[in-house]
Amino acid sequence: TYVVTESCIRCKYTDCVDVCPVDCFREGPNFLVIDPEECIDCTLCVAECPVEAIYAEDDVPADQHQFIALNAELSRQWKPIVERKDALPDASEWAKVKDKLGELQR
Ligand code: SF4
Ligand code: F3S
């Protein structure tokens, strides 16, 4: 499965959503996750993300491993998003910020 990691937080560009053939993105207030039960590993979303937030599960950087479980957990709580929408305000500013997990809104 593929996993959305930290750089998406407070950016939420949503370019990834438009290319997913199985609509497996789920939307929270300031972050998206991928439902690991639905993702078919097509890889299409990876190149779409302007902040390179999406990784294959096996390639998630060591300091982001908690996002694997977080995508699984939040995908059970959040609703599908199937169309691209505007990024969050200040997305370009937040794109440069590291260690944003504390900013995650559920
Ligand atoms: Fe969707 Fe493919 Fe990305 Fe999985 S890898 S989330 S199926 S676009
Ligand atoms: Fe997030 Fe990148 Fe998609 S910022 S919403 S994973 S395009």
TrEMBL record:
InterPro entries: 4Fe4S_Fe-S-bd, 4Fe4S_Fe_S_CS, 7Fe_ferredoxin, Fd_C, FdxA, RnfB_subfamily. Residues 1-29, 30-59 form the 4Fe-4S ferredoxin-type domain. It holds the Pfam family Fer4. The keyword Thylakoid does not apply. Its cofactor is [4Fe-4S] cluster; [3Fe-4S] cluster. Keywords: 3Fe-4S, 4Fe-4S, Electron transport, Iron, Iron-sulfur, Metal-binding, Repeat, Transport. The keyword Transmembrane does not apply. One of its GO terms (molecular function) is 3 iron, 4 sulfur cluster binding. Ferredoxins are iron-sulfur proteins that transfer electrons in a wide variety of metabolic reactions. This is Ferredoxin. It comes from Thauera propionica.
